[in-house]
Amino acid sequence: QVQLVESGGGLVQTGGSLRLSCAASGRTRSSYAMGWFRQAPGKERESVAAISWSGYKTSYADSVKARFTISRDNAKNTVYLQMNSLKPEDTAVYYCAATITYSSGSYYLEPYEYAYWGQGTQVTVSS
Questions:
Q1: What are 23-49's pLDDT values in tens digits?
Q2: How far apart are CA 34 and CA 80, in angstroms?
């Protein structure tokens, strides 16, 4: 059992930056691939970024590539999402997710692939 708690969301103006954090607790002895998802009103939950347990392999949605950076600090059981050059289209609830993996270089892009989820943090970008 793993608990995930997101933080760092809030209101920011267009062009601004935010850094989201996701702290994991519980059974953190295992290796976990991590991901960030977002869901805007009326839209399906979509993958924003994903990272392997090793931290060396990452993936980004085309809409955020070059603006967002996912990283992790396994010693702190924390994953981050640095968001720069924010746009109103980035407004959504952002969720952190984790799943056990036995492949240190694997990452996952679909919600069904994740076993553990945080409660979400709201990111609002004003125009």
A1: 999 876 788 999 999 999 999 999 999
A2: 10
